[in-house]
């Protein structure tokens, strides 16, 4: 009986520890990363403009993919702005030919830090009557499944979404994708 009670206590202690860990992970991945604007100047007098808005989370994988994508676009002539989602960032994205949203996937979802920002800007982009930008959505993760994109279907309605791509360790090269997007 004593062993059974110990077993039950250990079981619930483990469940509690996992829950605390998950809450910590969720808080960490959604922590605002602040205004860290980077500008890669384009070629010529009036280069096409792209903005990459990405939420880096626990490690550096999403940040690395965003930088590679930016380098590819820049090599293709684009002026590229990189920054993190948050209150510091304008919600008016008119003036860009290409808008890229990027986030890691945690527990089958993109980060709230990014999707909250998208909730503010996507309806405006969809309602715009002048030239609307091409939209690219990328996720990073360990799994090939892409249900995280399906969850955003409503948000992306009416937008000119040209690519939804998930970068896994064996996935597409981000630099090449940037170059390809610049040439389209
Ligand atoms: C707790 C946890 C949950 C994760 N859940 C998923 C998931 O549901 N799907 C997936 O593809 N990858 C998942 N991953 C892998 C991360 O998405 C992947 O490592 C990501 O590229 C990390 O990006 P970051 O370095 O910007 O944090 C998970 C990783 C951790 C640690």
Percent of residues in beta strands? 15-25%
DSSP summary, beta strand count? 7
The largest β sheet comes out as: 7 strands, mixed
Structural class: alpha/beta
Mean pLDDT: 93
Note down, in words, how this protein is organized.
The protein is α/β, with parallel strands linked by helices. It has one domain (38-183): Rossmann fold (3-Layer(aba) Sandwich), CATH 3.40.50. The protein contains six helices and seven strands, in the order αββαβββαβααβα. It has helices spanning 2-30, 61-75, 112-127, 147-150, 153-156, 174-183, and strands at residues 38-40, 49-54, 79-83, 98-106, 109-110, 134-140, 160-167. Strands 1, 2, 3, 4, 5, 6 and 7 form a seven-stranded mixed beta sheet that branches. Helix 2 packs parallel to helix 6 (174-183). The longest helix is centred in the N-terminal third of the chain and has 29 residues, at 2-30. It is elongated and about 80 Å long. The site of flavin mononucleotide (FMN) has 17 residues, from helix 2 and strand 4.
